[in-house]
């Protein structure tokens, strides 16, 4: 039984059968169910007890971008309300303006390394790890490059053996308890001549805003990353909106 559990499902389309089935099962088992969805008229929304609309408008490309940012912001808003976290509420109030400013950040310096890359590692720690995995997904999806999103701590173990001059590392660093370890890893990789691109911190090489909140900064970092990937794809003659062999709704079960 899930009588004392809170079940949260996040979906752009709200139509994947596995998410529908999981939401239905959780609710039948007694959980409080919340659907964070862009399509409020969808099977997932129908199965959930409560619906938090992303309201990002229709996603026209196969690769979701604005709904990812919207779902992360909505999730943070839900946490802020449940926890009565005034600092997070304040950060979310600042987020729209910071997202707008982030549109002007140019991360095109990564593009040169992508051209000769055999694979890309995207690393972060703490609350930035989700954004690292999302950027890696988009690099695979849109640039068609094998890309791995992983914890900066994990990059100090087995995966580090795979680093070379042809495997650039993109790293996100936020000002929280993980900052010192991310900074130390960045310094080590620079000493080893690994192609490293860092957002934030003393080793930051990518344009960035003044640090704000570690819960919302990873959301803002997605904006320049998305723009860089789109521009790099177009420069290589790839269509960033329609990656091959993919569909808008992935039906898994």
From TrEMBL:
<dbReference type="InterPro" id="IPR001347">
    <property type="entry name" value="SIS_dom"/>
</dbReference>
<dbReference type="Pfam" id="PF01380">
    <property type="entry name" value="SIS"/>
</dbReference>
<feature type="domain" description="SIS">
    <location>
        <begin position="1"/>
        <end position="88"/>
    </location>
</feature>
<dbReference type="GO" id="GO:0097367">
    <property type="term" value="F:carbohydrate derivative binding"/>
</dbReference>
<keyword id="KW-0808">Transferase</keyword>
<dbReference type="InterPro" id="IPR035466">
    <property type="entry name" value="GlmS/AgaS_SIS"/>
</dbReference>
<keyword id="KW-0677">Repeat</keyword>
<dbReference type="InterPro" id="IPR046348">
    <property type="entry name" value="SIS_dom_sf"/>
</dbReference>
<dbReference type="GO" id="GO:0004360">
    <property type="term" value="F:glutamine-fructose-6-phosphate transaminase (isomerizing) activity"/>
</dbReference>
<feature type="domain" description="SIS">
    <location>
        <begin position="110"/>
        <end position="243"/>
    </location>
</feature>
<dbReference type="InterPro" id="IPR035490">
    <property type="entry name" value="GlmS/FrlB_SIS"/>
</dbReference>
<dbReference type="GO" id="GO:1901135">
    <property type="term" value="P:carbohydrate derivative metabolic process"/>
</dbReference>
<protein>
    <submittedName>
        <fullName>Glutamine--fructose-6-phosphate aminotransferase [isomerizing]</fullName>
        <ecNumber>2.6.1.16</ecNumber>
    </submittedName>
</protein>
<keyword id="KW-0032">Aminotransferase</keyword>
């Amino acid at each position: 039984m899930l009588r004392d559990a809170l079940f949260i499902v996040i979906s752009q389309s709200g139509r994947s059968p596995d998410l529908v089935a999981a939401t239905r099962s959780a609710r039948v088992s007694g959980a409080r169910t919340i659907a964070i969805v862009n399509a409020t008229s969808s099977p997932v929304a129908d199965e959930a007890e409560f619906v938090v609309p992303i309201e990002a408008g229709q996603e026209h490309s196969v690769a979701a971008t604005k709904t990812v940012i919207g779902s992360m912001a909505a999730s943070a808003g839900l946490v802020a309300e449940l926890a009565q976290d005034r600092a997070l509420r304040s950060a979310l109030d600042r987020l729209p303006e910071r997202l707008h400013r982030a549109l002007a950040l140019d991360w095109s310096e990564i593009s040169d390394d992508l051209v000769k890359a055999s694979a890309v590692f995207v690393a972060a720690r703490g609350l930035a790890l989700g954004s690292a995995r999302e950027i890696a997904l988009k690099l695979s999806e849109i640039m068609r490059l094998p890309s791995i999103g992983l914890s900066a701590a994990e990059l100090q173990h087995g995966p580090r053996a795979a680093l070379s001059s042809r495997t650039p590392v993109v790293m996100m660093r936020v000002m929280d308890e993980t900052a010192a370890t991310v900074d130390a890893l960045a310094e080590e990789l620079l000493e080893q001549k690994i192609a490293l691109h860092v957002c934030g911190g003393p080793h930051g090489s990518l344009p960035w805003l003044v640090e704000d909140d570690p819960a919302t900064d990873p959301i803002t970092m997605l904006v320049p990353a998305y723009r860089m990937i789109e521009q790099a794809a177009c420069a290589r003659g790839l269509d960033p909106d329609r990656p091959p062999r993919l569909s808008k709704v992935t039906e898994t079960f």
